[in-house]
Amino acid sequence: MKVLVLAGVAPSTVFSHVPLANALRNAGHQVMTTASVDELMPTISGVGLAAVRVTDPNLTPQQIIAQSGLTRVPDEPLEREIMAGRWYAHMEYVTLDALLALSKDWRPDVIISGVTSYAGPLLSAHLGVPYVRHAWDIHDPKFMDQGAQEQLREQLTALGLDGLPEPAMTIEIAPPSMRPADAAPAQMMRWIPGNSQAVLEPWMYTRGEGSRIGVTIGTGVASYNQYDFLQGVVENIATLDSEVVVAVTEDAAPTLRERLQNVRAGWIPLDVVAPTCDVLVHQTGGSTMMTGLTFGVPQVLIPDTRMYRAADMARRLAETGAAVVLTPEEATSEVIAKTCQEIITNPSYAEAAAGLAAEIAALPGPDEVARRVEALVKA
After folding, report:
1. Where is the Erythromycin biosynthesis protein CIII-like N-terminal domain (predicted)?
2. What pLDDT band is residue 261 in, cutting at 50, 70 and 90?
3. Mean pLDDT, rounded, of the chain
4. What separation in angstroms does the CA of 50 have from each of 33, 35, 43, 135?
């Protein structure tokens, strides 16, 4: 069986596909992986998957969006979510010719398409092969789908379709208790981290006698000059007599190590360090959230309230009792430190997180889901 994986727009979305892609390869199937951002080619090959280029390496995502004329950024979060669907749809559509050309040389039997990999359903309709929609986190993409459908109206009409084609299978990875009551039936799958690895140091997988707090604020520390904010957070957390580890990209690590002499900072594999933490502090990254939940780690979430997706995921996790949400305005370094102290000293947060981890662990593994994908293609 030939499997084509459309892995999305960011390292975290690539990582989400690794467990199932590896399960399919281990079952003897051929797997190729593409992304709608060319700079992700090294990320795909770096996690051991075959990477196929379907984008123009000379164009940035921002340039691709600019060529579409979709340059307006709405202020209202829900409108921005719908517009994000239009952006993703355009970025995916411009890869369709390359995907069709690839399919002439290497025709897939099934397409596994990430949540916003809207080229997946289009390619499926062109080739007449099934596609599987693979969730990346707990977020419901219905409003992004609305925007994507609006953006692709002309292309869908040319295919004789009134809307985006329904997937032959939808894979969901959220703990069952966190799924909305009206959620459609889906193939559940256990979340297993698929992030990039590194040569490990003992401090990454061990901890001292006291508490440990993990901090990550995404990949934009250097780009957005967030050193002062991160330094303030870490210095205030350090007053709790807790060890602090900061997961950042290597371009940001030297400055942080210079400014924060007693803090471990660098590209730390999150699946290695998360089990050693009592709390994770982050900006509501879906992959970070799921990794923390897998290991039963309560979280402090600081979502960008302009982003519907981040605010929605943060709210839903906080409702389980496994997290505390702070708005960017509330999230001063002092408040973050006090919130971490509350989570460490109040066992209810860890208990709630452990309950969600147990739900995740009980779900079918990627190997079982791979067999169900096989059965889908054979049907």
Report:
1. 23-218
2. low
3. 91
4. 6, 11, 10, 21
